[in-house]
Amino acid sequence: MAGTVGQRTPRKAESNEPRRGEEVMSKNVEVLPSVGVIGLGNLGLPVARRLQTCGFRVVGYDARSSVRGSALDLDVVESVQEVVESSDAVLILVGSAGQCADVIAHIVATPPSGSSPKAGVARLRTVVLMSTVGPDAVARLADPLLNRGIEMLDVPVSGGADAAREGQLALMAGGPTASMERVLPWLALLGTVTPVGPLGAGQLVKLANQIVFFGTQAVLQEALDLASTASIEREALMEVLSGGTADCWSVRNPDFLLETARAYEKADVAPQLRPWHKDLAQARQVAQDRSVDVPVVQAVTEVFGDRLDARARA
Questions:
Q1: Which of these, 120, 168, 230, 271, has the minimum number of CB atoms within 10 Å of its CB?
Q2: At what angle do helices 177-187 and 18-28 cross, to 10 degrees?
Q3: What is the pTM of this model?
Q4: Pairing between β-strand 151-154 and β-strand 126-129 as defined by DSSP bridges
Q5: pLDDT tens across 205-243, in order?
Q6: Identical fold at 18-199 and 204-313?
Q7: What is the spatial distance between Cα 239 and Cα 22, in angstroms, rounded to a whole number?
């Protein structure tokens, strides 16, 4: 991609070539696992396509029939049960803890089927929770799976849809080491996987990431609004910011979040499920539960999300 203002900064390596994925996998596992992706939204769809590009058999599902109908290049099924019956591992990328709980309830309710001893739930070994639900929800979501002999890993992501397509996500992984080692060779095809601790730690690191990201986005927008009151070229301003002490990912990608918000607006995603509302609210609640004072997070939560939504609609 061109490195102009408002676009993602290119990486040196081209990580989205099909041959690269196939070569990586052939060195680490004997047979590519079949992967189910539940939730084909802003992140789920490019994640599914990325894995398919790398040689996996991918089965997708989304509760919204309109979304299922638009993913014509994927093997999309009509139920969670069909995903489970076809998958060795399932990635969950839905919008809320409640939706995750519904998906997991359907997973554990899927009976073993067919003549193979590996059919149905007996085949499914790992669920990778990639939704941002907060650390306290993870244990509740994991219990039903563990009771059925299915391991769960807590792997929220950061980077956006473009990074998912390119295999350049940041993945924050929480869970048992042995479980992590089994999925790491192919999960790494989605980006950089950083093990951060036990189950739930990935969620806590993701919330920390969101605090920094949305905080910098909020003050960056105010800085741009201030500069717009004078005859200052936006590109000149961004060059100065990126070359000095204000430099950060948000400064180098100033339009990323607005473009994301417009995509959510186009997809008619409910405001409470958009990460600038949902994740910041979770961060405040987790901080309160742990007696951590976060007045800046509170201020950003109260004003930033509504302003961003309004700009996306304009």
A1: 230
A2: 150
A3: 0.85
A4: parallel
A5: 999 999 999 999 999 999 999 999 998 999 999 999 999
A6: no
A7: 39
CATH of 204-313, one of 1.10.1040.10, 1.10.3720.10, 3.40.50.720, 1.10.287.130: 1.10.1040.10
**Which residue has tokens 């910041």?**
280
* Per CATH, domain 18-199 is 3.40.50.300: no
Give the residue from 130, 161, 192, 132 showing the smallest Cα distance to 49: 161
Close Cβ partners of 102 (under 8 Å, ≥ 6 residues apart): none
Take residue 298 and report the two structure tokens written for it. 């509170």
Pull the structure tokens for residue 300. Answer: 């950003």
For the chain, give every domain's residue range. 18-199, 204-313
List Cβ neighbours of 272 (8 Å cut-off, separation of 6 or more): 278
How far is CA 26 from each of CA 54, 104, 144, 160, 268, rounded to the nearest angstrom? 11, 31, 33, 28, 40
High-pLDDT (> 70) share of the chain, %: 87
Helix/strand/coil percentages in the chain, nearest 5: 55, 10, 35
Pick from 201, 186, 222: nearest CA to 299? 222
With H, G, I as helix, E, B as strand and everything else as coil, classify residue 41.
coil
Residues whose CB falls within 8 Å of the CB of residue 207, separated by 6 or more in sequence, listed in order: 132, 134, 135, 279, 282, 283, 286
Looking at residue 30, what is its pLDDT?
Answer: 52
